[in-house]
Write a structure and sequence with these properties.
It comes from Ignelater luminosus (Cucubano). One of its GO terms (biological process) is proteolysis. It is a lipid-anchor; GPI-anchor. With 948 residues, the chain is an alpha+beta fold. Among the domains are: 254 residues, Sandwich (Immunoglobulin-like); 149 residues, Immunoglobulin-like; 70 residues, no CATH class. 43% of the residues lie in helices and 20% in strands. It has 30 helices and 30 strands. The strands form eight sheets. An eight-stranded mixed sheet has the order 5-4-8-2-1-11-14-13. Strands 16-17-18-20-19 form a five-stranded mixed sheet. It is globular, with a radius of gyration of 32 Å.
Length: 948
């Protein structure tokens, strides 16, 4: 009896915790109303769980499982039914569903307490239970209504299948033992985001965090793992081949963090070398026995990451053990971050880096220990997890792991995405990812502007408050605000909530314009929406304002260690700052990309920066991330039409001395963007010459072959330089590509495989002979069905997209449109049209081809309106000059009324081309004048170049 009373006391306390969670409410920022990650059937709030006791018996070879669950629940409202999540594939034994009342309602409980009479468990009669059609719901209808405070235990038996074609829910897979050839089965689980209902009836929402007590039946030769350590094992009386393992009760956790593995895997443990080590966690990696040596070194990385994260959070790792599984044939797009039992792909635990490991370990605190109340908060959870991962991994590796130039690559991608007229298009996945990336960068901005100490302590304050509970995104901002006020790094009138909301609730970014008044040493700072893609006719753009930190560096007092803002633009259109340096000294605003926004200056300040960067001693005083930012901002602002191109091109002059790959990274993107924009004009040839002069010394200095021990950045710099030089016609590159291609042409059976590296194919099709291109065409036509089709797709892309000779393009169009070659599908034609938009030779040839063969093409596509629309789009929408506008305008007038479903396409194209032609008319003369001057000064280098 004493034990029962103790249990009931614990259950009451747990139910109060659940009630507290359920009564949480959204506060000032709805961080996700527009960013829901999943659409799901929510449960009524009439009853809530207190705990689960779950027994599972998987049959790996048969592909099925059976189970039994006991759920202790509390009534929050008077009701006569209990609604649970249960997937339609789950088979519930309706005759084995029972409801037992262990505690009465609040009023009765109070009377019994006064009389010292304990409540006797009573079985509640069930009228019926049913699966709801087309909804993942299971409802138990009771004979009578039960009042608030009533506690019952539901017991349900069920069975289901082990999924074999996916790594979701409770699934099975196998591997072959290389020594014996025997097939070995294993069972694992992945319940994120709402897949626990596939395995057992439950309250399958993240807000319901309660303890789990789990038991698993396995055969004697296998091992069972779950979130908690093993408590005891016993043989099944009826069949001693089976063992039931009982595991320790878990802390309160959401259903999606429950993890299970039943396998014959072997393990390697991390052996601590220091007895005083404060990381008291049993760390093991499990995998198939023959793969154990490949993951041997990962235990050290797990240990270091776990220790670093424990220090970051200021809280110990919340479980007594951590099992990481290198799973064969794992099909998940990302690891399954179950609490204390993480499933990885084998390659993710055997590769060199540690970012992926650290990223999953972050979720052991952020997601498992403290859990978003609903999936609408998942984007801020993911953003913070990624930021902390990078923060801690950089510290562990002493900055050696660069994560593909983090954060610059991320910044550039969202600059491009959010500056479009229509960000994301209709692709929700892009919207979610770019939104999460922006939120990650907001955390980085706060790290600089409030201080690293304040941000870390604020996050520690948050996790300490919400451990074993749920949270809203606003809880994070609130904790950082409290810490910032305690540290006096934020005015009492400002909240981090306000700052963050101005960034994460908009699908846009600002540009900051800095106009100096050199006479009185002041400057006007104004903000507006950053729009790169024309026309800049975005509605309501004048209403969008941000909280922008103004971090300022001055030439006369260079100090890149102080990132405290000299001012905040508090959603103000314009502010003034004073006390700037003399007129001959530059200033830099937003160094190191502290905030995710570009900065434009007056021409004089840009020129001061350009001159300083050409001085080698001065240039190295400016950190490489800031050098990259200045270059990237200048080129993108010029591309957007906000900066004179001569000023932007002046910012590239320091590159002849620059050898850091981080500074070069934006150059390659802009060479591509500007090159595509002007390649239909006469200026393009001069631009290519400029690219050759810029890149040839760099590439020749780097050398053709990697050096022993060189950095990843240097290797990437060599690779990028080579790609762009090849595109520009660099003879050594073309000859190397043709030599590799000749080996393929000389093989006896060329259709059996492609021995040529992808980097060589485009240069050959662009600069090579007719024979080489025709050979490639035959390989596409004869491509065997047995080979990977993505190889054929790549070959077709380069075959259509790389050539500059119009006859090659016309030939592939003839074959696919008129000859109706059975080896080409409509999808192939879509792909060809799309690839021809990549260069002026492609889309100009396509336009002329359409015009010349109008009637025949119309007939060929009369029953294929989507292909017809694609053709009109690709052949008319990409022109950038007045000449191109005249061509498309002439076709429109000539064929007016004949475009059918594509009428709106060409009308939209004409509107856009007018904008692009205006840009070309404004900028091409400026670019040409600058290039003429540059090429004249570098005439000697141009004359000795090794180009076609």
């Amino acid at each position: 009896m004493a034990i029962r009373i103790l249990i009931l006391t614990v259950l009451v306390l747990q139910s109060l915790q659940i009630i507290e969670v359920q009564c949480s409410h959204k506060r000032s920022i709805d961080l996700i109303a527009a960013h829901s990650l999943i659409s799901d059937t929510r449960l009524p709030r009439e009853v809530t769980p207190n705990s689960y006791i779950l027994d599972l018996h998987p049959y790996p070879e048969e592909g099925s499982f059976t189970g039994r669950i006991k759920i202790n629940i509390t009534w929050q409202e008077t009701t006569d039914r209990v609604t649970l999540h249960a997937h339609e594939d789950l088979v519930i034994n309706h005759s084995e569903v029972s409801v037992t009342q262990y505690a009465p309602d609040d009023e009765t409980s109070f009377r019994e307490k006064e009389s010292s009479t304990p409540h006797t468990p009573v079985e509640i009669k069930i009228l019926r239970n049913e699966m709801v059609p087309k909804k993942p719901l299971f409802i138990i209808y009771l004979e009578k209504s039960l009042n608030r405070g009533t506690q019952c235990e539901i017991e349900i038996s069920f069975s289901g299948k082990l999924y074999n074609d996916t790594s979701e829910g409770l699934f099975r897979s196998n591997y072959v033992n290389p020594s014996t050839g025997e097939r070995k089965w294993f069972v694992a689980s992945h319940f994120r985001p709402n897949l626990a209902r596939r395995v057992f009836p439950c309250f399958d929402e993240p807000a319901y965090k309660v303890p789990f007590t789990l038991s698993i039946v396995r055969c004697k030769t296998m091992t069972a793992l779950t979130n908690m350590p093993l408590l005891k094992s016993e043989e099944l009386t009826k069949d001693p081949r089976w063992i039931r393992d009982y595991f320790q009760e878990s802390p309160p956790m959401s259903t999606f963090t429950l993890g299970i593995l039943v396998s014959d895997f072997a393990s390697v443990a991390y052996n601590k070398t220091d007895d005083k080590d404060d990381l008291d966690v049993d760390i093991k990696i499990w995998t198939r026995p023959d793969f154990l040596s490949a993951v041997q070194n990962a235990t050290e990385k797990i240990y270091k990451s776990l220790k670093s994260l424990q220090e970051f959070w200021g809280l110990p790792y919340p479980l007594p053990k951590l099992d990481c599984i290198a799973l064969p044939n794992y099909q998940g797009t990302r690891p399954a971050d179950n609490w204390g039992l993480i499933l990885f792909k084998e390659s993710e635990l055997s590769n060199k880096g540690s970012w992926q490991i650290s990223h999953e370990l972050v979720y052991q605190w952020l997601g498992s220990l403290a859990t978003p109340f609903w999936w609408s908060d998942a984007h801020i959870n993911n953003a913070l997890a990624r930021y902390i991962t990078t923060y801690t991994t950089l510290k562990i590796s002493d900055g050696k792991e660069t994560f593909h130039n983090w954060p610059m690559t991320m910044l550039y991608s969202i600059y491009y995405e959010f500056s479009k007229r229509y960000p994301h298009g209709k692709v929700m996945a892009i919207k979610q990812d770019s939104g999460s990336t922006k939120t990650e960068l907001v955390f980085r901005m706060l790290n600089y502007t409030l201080g690293e100490k304040t941000l870390v302590h604020g996050l520690q304050r948050f996790i300490s408050d919400r451990q074993f509970k749920t949270f809203f995104g606003d809880d994070i901002w609130g904790a950082i605000t409290e810490q910032a006020r305690f540290d006096s790094t934020l005015e009492d009138t400002i909240t981090v909530n306000e700052i963050a909301a101005s960034w994460i609730t908009k699908d846009r970014l600002p540009v900051l314009n800095v106009t100096r008044n050199y006479g009185d040493k002041t400057s006007t700072l104004s903000q507006r929406v950053y729009l790169r893609e024309r026309p800049h006719d975005v509605p309501d753009q004048d209403k969008l304002l941000w909280w922008i930190p103004v971090v300022l560096i001055r030439e006369d007092k260079l100090n890149f260690t102080n990132s405290t803002p000299v001012a905040w633009m508090k959603r103000q259109r314009e502010i003034q700052i004073t006390g700037l340096p003399d007129a001959d000294k530059f200033i830099i605003v937003n160094p190191e990309e502290i905030g995710p926004f570009p900065v434009n200056y007056d021409t004089n300040n840009w020129n001061l920066l350009a001159e300083y960067l050409q001085n080698n001693d001065g240039r190295l005083k400016i950190p490489v991330n800031t050098r990259a930012k200045l270059l990237h901002d200048a080129w993108n602002l010029a591309y957007a039409g906000d900066l004179n191109f001569a000023t932007a091109l002046n910012m590239t002059l320091f590159l002849r001395y620059e050898r850091e790959h981080l500074a070069w990274d934006p150059v390659f993107t802009m060479i591509d963007h500007i090159g595509r924009h002007i390649d239909s004009s006469n200026v393009h040839k001069k631009f290519l010459t400029y690219v050759r002069i810029l890149l040839t010394p760099l590439y020749e200095e780097l050398g053709e072959e990697p050096q022993e021990g060189e950095s990843e950045g240097r290797a990437n710099l060599r690779s990028s330089s080579k790609v762009f030089l090849c595109q520009a016609g660099y003879k050594p590159c073309i000859e190397e590509a043709q030599a590799a291609f000749d080996k393929w042409m000389d093989t006896e059976n060329p259709d059996e495989g492609n021995p040529v590296s992808n980097q060589y194919i485009c240069p050959v099709f662009k600069w090579g002979s007719q024979e080489e291109w025709e050979f490639g065409l035959q390989r596409v036509i004869n491509f065997p069905a047995s080979r990977k089709q993505n190889e054929r797709t790549y070959l077709l892309k380069t075959l259509a997209g790389c050539p500059v000779d119009s006859w090659k393009i016309e030939k592939i169009l003839n074959i696919t449109i008129f000859e109706q070659n059975g080896n080409f599908t409509d999808n192939d034609i879509y792909l060809i049209f799309s690839m021809l938009t990549g260069g002026s030779s492609g889309y100009t040839t396509l336009f002329n081809y359409l015009r010349k063969n109008w009637d025949a093409i119309k007939k060929a596509f009369e029953n294929k309106p989507q292909l017809w629309n694609s053709l009109i789009t690709s052949s008319t929408s990409v022109f950038k000059t007045q000449e191109g506008l005249d061509m498309v305008q002439s076709l429109y007038l000539e064929k007016q009324g004949q475009f059918g479903t594509a009428e709106f396409v060409i009308e939209k194209a004409l509107k856009n081309i007018k904008e692009e032609a205006k840009w070309s008319n404004d900028n091409l003369p400026v670019i040409e004048a600058w290039l003429d001057n540059y090429l004249q000064k570098n005439k000697a280098e141009n004359e000795k170049s090794k180009f076609l």
